[in-house]
Amino acid sequence: MKTIDSFGNNIAVVIGTFVLFAFCLFPYPARAQQQTSGAKSILQEFLDIIGSGTTATTNQSTSSGNSISITPSALIDLYRYVGNKVGVPACVLEAVSYIEWPTAFNYTPEEVQLYSQPGQRIPNCAPNTCSASGHMQMTTGIDPYGSASCSQCCWQGSCLSSCPNAWGSYGNAIQQYENISHMPDVCNLTDSTYAAAQKLKNDSNTSPGDLNWSEEAMHRAGERYYGNCTVTYSRLGDRTYCGFIIHQCNL
Questions:
Q1: Does a structural domain hold residue 243?
Q2: Are 89 and 211 in contact (CB under 8 A)?
Q3: What is the distance between the alpha carbons of residues 47 and 68, in angstroms, rounded to a whole number?
Q4: 139, 2 in Cβ contact below 8 A?
Q5: Angle between the N-to-C axes of helices 109-116 and 189-204, in degrees from 0 to 180, rounded to the nearest 10
Q6: Which one of 1, 20, 80, 133 is at 20 to 30 Å from 141 when CA atoms are compared?
């Protein structure tokens, strides 16, 4: 969830996420994985590998001055896998995830595998007052009180009258790329990563399969995801939301 020092932009965030859907491109054609009867899907084989801990080590995130290092984790392996499918650089997904839910970078490979399985959810996953939920903090249309009004999502005396719902537009993104039968869940690592990746891809205005994003594309996608790229945050090395994404991708 957004920290206290960034709450000043919550209204901009949710309104930006809600309003800017009108400018998104349509998702490009599905590339669902073919699966033979009784065989594991490519996704499941991948999850089995990261669960074994053979592809990465547990992450430890550190910061010093305006330099922030996010060391490899099983979570980043998931971002590489999904990013390659959707056409989003893994560093973009990594940076957005670090901003939105840094706790996820402390998950062990076994936890990443568990929370990525169909029907599984990350701990303490509940919507905030602006309806954002999951490790990618996508708005869901329902606030913590079960209301669709988000009337307590306020800034400087102005409150929302209707919750934004990015998940409603992108929650089924995984179905374009994987042969699945479960209902996607915003609190599931794989489901939510696919949804966030598809929104970022659409908002980047990059071509299908393009993983070599310009800084302009990163800025455009980040600004439309968050709603604001003018305020700097100390925990991001005194960078803006978009500036941090660009920084991570230039390391």
A1: no
A2: yes
A3: 28
A4: no
A5: 80
A6: 80
**Residue 188 gets which letter from DSSP?**
S
Indicate the pTM of the whole model: 0.76
Longest dimension (CA), the chain: 57
Q: Which two tokens stand for residue 37?
A: 């009867």
Q: How many independent structural domains does the chain possess?
A: 1
Residue 42: which domain range?
4-61+71-226
Rounded CA-CA distance 87/89 in Å is 7
Per-residue pLDDT tens listing for the chain (251 residues): 433 333 334 444 443 443 333 323 223 222 222 333 445 566 666 666 655 554 443 344 444 445 455 555 789 999 999 999 999 999 999 999 999 999 999 999 999 999 999 999 999 999 999 999 999 999 999 999 999 999 999 877 889 999 999 999 999 999 999 999 899 999 999 999 999 999 999 999 999 999 999 999 999 999 999 988 999 999 999 999 999 999 999 98
In the block, which residue shows the tokens 């929650």?
A: 171
Residue 55 in tokens: 């592809």
236 in any annotated domain: no
Asked whether the beta carbons of 2 and 129 are under 8 A apart, the reply is: no
